[in-house]
Design goal:
The complex is a heterotrimer of chains A (88), B (180) and C (109).
Chain A (H helix, E strand, L loop, with lengths): L1 H25 L3 H26 L3 H23 L7
Chain B lengths: L12 H23 L4 H18 L12 H24 L8 E6 L6 H10 L5 E7 L4 E6 L6 H13 L11 E4 L1
Antiparallel strand pairs in B: 1-3, 1-4, 2-3
Chain C lengths: L8 H26 L3 H27 L2 H31 L12
The chains are: A mainly alpha (88), B alpha+beta (180), C mainly alpha (109).
């Protein structure tokens, strides 16, 4: 039962990610596209943590930790390098 | 957090020590959470190095936080952020989409540095508010609110942050004006 | 950590928390799809997804039955929270500087 629930959760979260990415692909502004970073960050972390429990693989938790830290850095880089219409 | 207007005052030795102590405590706690006591000498050295580095790089005056005030703020934060999640989830799923998004300007009554940084970051997790931008050299926070009523979070959060940093009880009347 | 057959009574609590967390992720995505402007969509992503992450972490901590794992999950949640809060502010500021200063609904006095 636990395994089924974990599997369902992973599938559900991945579907969420797909739906979100489709929406973000439509997004007219750069800021809309930056939402992808947020979405990816929070969803992949949850997926990795659930997979870690599912497969009993401790290493995946470390990967999740790295993802969380990287998400902030990626946003910083994205916002810092995208300057459409930035006021001086 | 890069909030633009931090004055680059030169910090005294004692202020840098306060920074080092704060960062050291945070890093040690993090090591304990991640690795327990396993390999603690490495953790100790790493935390010391991190503390030294941040003391060296610090540009703003540190604000000491009385440790006894942390739990109550943490509890407030957890409860409010849960309310925030519940609130936005309900609005997103509601068929009628009950939101009236709008910008407000809020004059901050917090000293520069950590209190403001905390305000700007935490506000985005409170019910219905999102800190959009700092204006006027960092004195005015532009808040995006999902509903007009959400601005109450801002006043409340500011009061809690003042309490956390042991600042005197403030707002005579904190104001939030509509803004473009 | 036994990813297999028998489901202990405590596991049901973990499973319930986990699925509830997923529901919050779903709500976040619903907001992303339905809200009318970037700022409102940011609200949905930061708040709902972090509530989701909290519940998923809580559920997994119950399922793992290990303090070490629970502590690690706690740190991951806190870092995720910081990441979301900082990112949300940076993205909102960027959006304002790029000229979309209005939320899409009417401005109200």
């Amino acid at each position: 039962m636990t395994a089924i629930a974990l599997g369902l959760a992973v599938v559900f979260l991945l579907l969420n990610l797909l739906a979100g990415l489709w929406r973000i692909g439509q997004g007219p502004t750069a800021a809309d596209r930056m939402l992808a970073v947020l979405l990816f960050g929070s969803t992949t972390v949850a997926v990795l943590l659930i997979m870690a429990q599912w497969l009993g693989d401790e290493a995946l938790r470390t990967v999740a930790l790295l993802f969380v830290v990287l998400a902030t850095i990626v946003t910083l880089a994205f916002v810092g390098t995208t300057r459409d219409g930035e006021r001086p | 957090m890069p909030t633009e207007s931090e004055p680059t005052t030169t910090l005294g030795k004692r202020e840098r020590l306060v920074w080092a102590r704060q960062i050291f405590v945070v890093l040690v706690l993090m090591w304990l959470a991640l690795a327990g006591l396993e390999g603690w000498p490495v953790g100790l050295v790493t935390a010391l190095a991190g503390a030294a580095l941040s003391a060296w790089l610090a540009t703003v005056k540190p604000r000491p936080v009385p440790p006894l005030r942390v739990p109550s703020f943490a509890l407030f934060f957890v409860i409010e952020s849960m309310r925030g999640g519940l609130d936005v989830a309900w609005r997103a799923l509601h068929p009628a989409l009950p939101i009236e998004p709008q910008f407000h300007r809020f004059e901050l009554r917090l000293p520069e540095g950590q209190p403001r940084t905390l305000m700007v970051s935490v506000l985005s997790l409170m019910p219905g508010t999102l800190s959009a931008e700092l204006e006027g050299g960092g004195d005015v926070l532009v808040v995006h609110a999902l509903t007009p009523g959400a601005m109450a979070s801002v006043v409340l959060l500011q009061a809690r942050i003042r309490r956390l940093f042991a600042l005197p009880e403030d707002p005579p009347e904190a104001r939030a004006e509509p803004a473009r | 950590m036994s990813p297999s057959a028998s489901t202990l009574p405590g596991d049901w609590i973990g499973i319930a928390l986990l699925l509830l967390g997923c529901a919050f992720y779903g709500a976040g995505t619903a907001g992303l799809l339905r809200f009318p402007d970037v700022y409102s969509r940011l609200h949905a992503l930061t708040k709902a997804d972090n509530q989701g992450l909290l519940l998923v972490c809580a559920g997994l901590a119950v399922l793992a039955r290990s303090w070490r794992v629970a502590a690690l999950l706690g740190v991951i949640w806190l870092l995720g929270l910081m990441a979301a809060a900082v990112s949300a502010h940076l993205i909102a500021r960027h959006a304002r500087h790029s000229g979309s200063r209005r939320t899409s609904s009417e401005e109200r006095p």
